[in-house]
Write a structure and sequence with these properties.
23% strand; mainly beta
Length: 65
């Protein structure tokens, strides 16, 4: 995942990895080290997530238009 974005508001700043392909979305954060504070992953075209196989806790946010 070589696409990155940073969002900065009055409340939160997050460094985001954009999971663009089917494989990137399917793999997600499995086999990745725990994300550092202020980092995350964006899964477009996704309406459900699961934590099966995760070695660390997840904070999940659903975005809508």
């Amino acid at each position: 995942m070589n696409t990155h974005a940073e969002f900065d508001t009055d409340r939160v700043r997050v460094h985001v990895h954009h999971a663009r392909t089917w494989w990137q979305r399917a793999r997600g954060l499995i086999a990745h080290p725990e994300p550092r504070h202020g980092a995350g992953m964006f899964f477009p075209k996704t309406n459900a997530v699961h934590g099966i196989g995760m070695a660390h806790a997840l904070d999940i946010v659903f975005l809508d238009r």
